[in-house]
Specification:
mainly alpha; 3 domains; 398 residues; Leucine-rich Repeat Variant; elongated
Amino acid sequence: MRNLNSALFLLLSVVSFAYSAPKSVEIKNSTTTVVGANSSQPSSRLKERIKNINTTTSAETKDDDKTIQNLAYKLDSDVDALPIDKDLINSTRDKTLNWRTRYLLLGRIGHAKDKKISKDEEMTLYSDTLLDKQEHDRVRKLAAWFLMEPAKTNAKARQALSLAAKDKTMPGPVLESVMISAGYAGIDDVDALKGLMERDPKTNNEIGINLNAVRALGKSKDPRAIGMLFKIMDESQPDSFYHATALGEFSAILRDPTTEVKIRAMLVPRLLKLLDDRSHYGASRQTAGRLLLRLNETRAIDPIIKWIKPEKDGGGGGTDAVWAAEILAEFGDKRAIVPIEELLNNFATDVRWTELIKRYPMYRFPEEAIDYVHIQECLKKLKGEEYNKSKVMLPLGH
């Protein structure tokens, strides 16, 4: 029987949650044959197997998540027995079959490891299915999921996501899955991404579409993409979803030394300014500190040391102090030793943690407080002493 993860992934794709191909790449929205596939009809044995599966799916009238999950489990062995070849691709395109059958067949192809089809045939199937406006939304969503990983390197997959992203008639649930894949893999159609971000989201799912457009910008090779990320940062509130997401994309962008040189002068002042920001939680503040560490920008050290001070003295919250200890330990600047020592010495009476005494009376305080142990190990690292690496998170790509 197929691994249980396959059936669970099918359910995951049911629930809502690329770099653009060269102009020469053509994706045909065919619903009958696959490029390069033979035109022969499926074998009689395969047709009989699929007919039996289709009989079961056609008897089902509901299309809620639980129903689809139950079908996936019920027909797991039957679907798993189908060989992954051109005949199965042609059957997956067969609109005379119940859409639930096509959904299960597509899942079989997507999850299988041993396939007697080429990568181009597989990508063509997913691309055609996604762009087929006559196909059921759930099947299209599943196709978008299967394009996610290939789109990092496959031109046809990226092109399909790009076309889907700028299709103004794309149903919302399908577009959501498209943008999850695009946010992961990236597309270079900056204009399409800009259009998506300008939409006024009405639901959390639509917010996710916008945020994944921001993530896709971070993976785009279009020079305009970086300018748009700066624009998003400048026009959104620090620590907002959009600000934190745009800022986070610079983590990958800075891995390219050439790009780092080009954008450093524009990025560093924005990051330094964020170190003193006191927004709700501080996701943007933390990311700014980590990016400045990656850039080895020592001007960040003094403002980050300030996070360690008590809140009454202009310092940050408990989370700020932990972040500061991690970042400063990685910087290796000895100026941070005394402030961190003072923090640990006063930990038991520091209002940022005294509430823990009431919440966890069974623990020895502060010795068993997670933050105390964490900061203590960071101090050892800063001093050049032996420390428990599992208690210090950085470096993790900063």
